[in-house]
Amino acid sequence: MAANAADSRQQLLDALPIAAATVGIEDGVVVIECSNQVFKHFEKPLAYVDNDQALILDRNGLARLIEGFLRTDAASGEFFWHDGDAISGRHFNVNLTRIHSGQPDHPRCMVFLLDRTAELQTETNLRREMLSDSLTGLPNRAGFTEILEETAAGDDPHFAVLIIDLVRFSRVNECIGPMAGDELIITVARRLVHALRGGDRLARLGGDEFGILVRLVDGPGDALHVAQRVGEILAAPCRLSELEICVEASVGCAVFTSESDDVEELVRHAQFALKRAKVTGRTEIYQPIAFRKARQRFTLETELRRAVEGGGLHLAFQPLVDLETDQVTGFEALARWKTEDGRDISPTDFIPVAEESGLIVPIGRWALDSAARTLAAWDKRTGHTLPVKMSVNLSAIQLARDDMAGALSQVIDLHGIAGNRFTLELTESAIIADPERAVRVLDSLKALDASLAMDDFGTGYSSLTYLQRLPLDILKIDRSFITGMLTDKNKIAIVRAVLSLADALGMKTTAEGIETVELSRTLAALGCAVGQGFFYSGPLDETEAFDYMVSRNN
User: Fold this and answer.
1) Which residue of 257, 280, 472, 513 pairs with 482 in a disulfide if CB–CB is 3.0 to 4.6 A?
2) pLDDT exceeding 70 applies to what percent of the chain?
3) How far, in Å, CA of 92 to CA of 82, rounded?
4) What sign has the CA pseudo-torsion 279, 280, 282, 284?
5) Mean pLDDT highest for which of 44-58, 74-88, 119-133, 415-429?
6) CA atoms within 13 A of residue 514's CA, in its CB half-sphere
7) Cα gap 354→429, rounded to integer Å
8) Do 83 and 92 meet the contact criterion of CB atoms below 8 Å apart?
C-alpha cells in the first residue's frame, strides 16, 4: 500500500508543469521525499557557480527556510530564493503548502519552485536602459537621481552636485551637424571621467548638460577642485574629423546638507547656480538668498500673468508741463499694479519680470490701448479734441517681438485718436539690441504721425550715431542729471550740452525729476521745453489727471 501511495504521489508530481517536491523533517533533518523531473533539473548545481556540488536544500539556506515554515502551524507560505552567487544564478518564488499526515513529529509540505530568472533579468535590463544614457553609457537624469538618493541615505552623506553645461554647444549642431555634436558629447564624457576621483560619479543629464556627484572629504573645497579639473581637462581642443573645437563649460555647484534631503531640489539649486555661472563666467556655488529671490521673481511672474489676463493692471498719469507757458501739454502713462490682496507692486519690481518673461508684450499693447481710451474719454467729456498728448513707454522686447506699428494703428482706428497725440518713449538699450530693426520700426511709427522720444538720455551709450539715424523728436534728460543740478557745475554743463545738441538736431527736450521751482525756472531759462516731476505732480489716476489738466490750463 505504501508503495502504491508513493507511486501515486510521484505520478501526481510528474503531471505538474512546474518544479514540485514533497519535503519533510526526519530525525531533525529536512529531506526531499520525492520530486518531479522539473524539480530534479533545478536540484543540479549551476556549473558556473564554483562547481558547488551541494544539494539544493543545502544551497543558500533553502532547508533552513523550509524548516522554519514546517515548525509553524501555517497552512501555506511563500518566500523569494536566489540560487547562485550575487551576480549570476537563478531566482525563484518558493511556495509552500502543508500536508496534513496526522504525524506531528514528521511535518511535511509541498514545495513549488517558480523560476523568475528570465523575468528578473529582463526587468534588470529594462531598468538599466531606463537609467542609462544611450549615447555615452553614463547614468541619465533618472539614474543620477537614484545615485544621489542612495548616497543621501548612506552612512556618510557628505557630497556636492556639480552641473556642467557646454558653452555654445548648439552652434556645433548648427554648423557641422548633429552627428558631430554626438561625437563631441562622447569625447567630453570621456574627458570628464578623468576629472573624477574615487567615489565621484558622472552622469549625462540631457543635451549638453552633465552632472557630477562629488564626495566631500575635505569640505566644499573638494567640489571647487573638481570644477577646476573639469575646466583644465576641457581646455585642450577636441578634434572632430578635420576640425578642432574648443569647448568651454559653465559649472554650478550645490552642497548637500541635512536640512535639504530632497536630492531633486539639490539638483535644482545646482542648476540655479549654473545659470549665474553663465553670466559671471566662473564656477558658482548655490546661495540660498539668491535662490529665494529667484523664486520670488517666479512667484511674481505667476501673479503678474494672472493680473494681465484678469485686467489687474491700471494706468497712472504724470503731467508733462510746458516750462514757458506753465500749461499741461501731455501725460506719461505709467503701468501700476495692485495685487488681489491689496499690495502695491513697484514698477521697478514687476517691469523687469515682465520683460524677462515676455509679458511686457501684452502689457505694452494694453498700455497703448488704455492710454488711447483715456484720451478718447477726456475728449468726449470736454466735447472737443484736447491739445494734450499721451506718452507710452516701449521696451526692447516690444521692438524685437511685436508689431508696434500694427498695434498703434489698431488703437488709432478703434478709439478714433489721431497718431500725432501719441509719444512713444524708448531707451538707448532698446536700440542697441538691433539698430537696423529699431530704425525700421520707428520709421513705421513715424508714418502714423506718432512722436518719438529717447528716454533717460545720457545714462546709456549715448551714441550720436543713433541720434543721427533715428527719427527722434524728443530727448528726455534723465533725472540723475537734474537732481542737485543747481549745486553741481558738472551736471549743469551736461544739461547745457544735451540742450544744445537737441537744438542742433531740431529736437525738443523734456527734463525729468523737477522737484523745486528753482529747477523749473533754471531749466526754462536754459531753453528746456517741457518739465516733469513732483514739483508739478506725481502720477495721478484718470480722474485726478483730468482735473489737474483742466485746473492748470484754464
Assistant:
1) 513
2) 93
3) 6
4) negative
5) 415-429
6) 28
7) 16
8) yes
The residues facing 243 across adjacent strands are 240
User: What is the phi/psi pair of residue 27, to 5°?
Assistant: 55, 40
* Rounded (to 5) percent helix, strand, coil in the chain: 45, 25, 30
- Residue range 65-90: average pLDDT? 87
C-alpha cell belonging to residue 374: 483715456
Tens-place pLDDT, residues 339-380: 888 889 999 889 988 988 899 999 999 999 999 999 999 999
The x, y and z cell numbers of residue 156, run together, are 556618510
Long-range contacts of 129-134 (CB under 8 A, 24+ apart): 133/203, 133/204
How far is 435 from 463, CA to CA, in rounded Å?
A: 11
476 membership: H or E segment, kind and range? strand 474-477
How far is residue 159's CA from residue 465's CA, in Å, rounded to a whole number?
Answer: 54
pLDDT in tens, 94-146: 999 998 877 778 899 999 999 988 888 878 777 777 888 888 989 999 899 99
Residues 75 and 234: their CA atoms lie apart, in Å, by 65
Residue with the three cell numbers 552622469? 203
What single string gives the DSSP state of each residue in 91-140?
EEEEEEEEE--S-TTS-EEEEEEEE-HHHHHHHHHHHHHHTB-TTT-SB-
- Compute the distance between CA of residue 123 and CA of residue 130 in angstroms, rounded to an integer: 10
Question: Would strands 328-338 and 19-26 be described as parallel, antiparallel, or unpaired?
Answer: unpaired
Res 538 pLDDT > 90: yes
Is residue 50 predicted with pLDDT exceeding 50?
no
Of 39-53, 93-107, 396-410, 534-548, minimum mean pLDDT range: 39-53
Three-class secondary structure assignment of 497-508: HHHHHHHHCCCE
Give the model's pLDDT for residue 461: 55
Q: Coil, strand, or helix at residue 17?
A: coil
Other CB atoms within 10 A of residue 497 CB: 11
For residue 61, what are the contacts with CB-CB under 8 A and spacing of at least 6? none
- 23's CB contacts (< 8 A; 6+ apart) are 30, 31, 32, 33, 57, 66, 70, 108, 109, 110, 111
In terms of Cα–Cα distance, which of 521, 543, 526 is closest to 321? 521
**The C-alpha cell that represents 442 in the structure block:** 520707428
C-alpha 379/C-alpha 278 separation (Å) is: 52
Class assignment of domain 2-122?
A: alpha beta
Say if residues 330 and 423 touch (Cβ distance below 8 Å).
Answer: yes
Give the architecture-level CATH label for domain 133-286: 2-Layer Sandwich (3.30)
Tell me the CATH architecture of domain 312-553. Answer: Alpha-Beta Barrel (3.20)
Question: What is the end-to-end Cα distance of the chain in Å, rounded?
Answer: 129
- 23 contacts 69 by C-beta, under 8 angstroms: no
- Paired with 108 in beta bridges are 24, 99
Domain borders along the chain are 2-122, 133-286, 312-553
pTM of full prediction above 0.70: no
The answer to whether residue 428 scores a pLDDT higher than 80 is no
Task: Say if residue 258's pLDDT is above 70.
Answer: no
- Looking only at the bridges linking them, the beta strands covering 238-240 and 243-245 are antiparallel
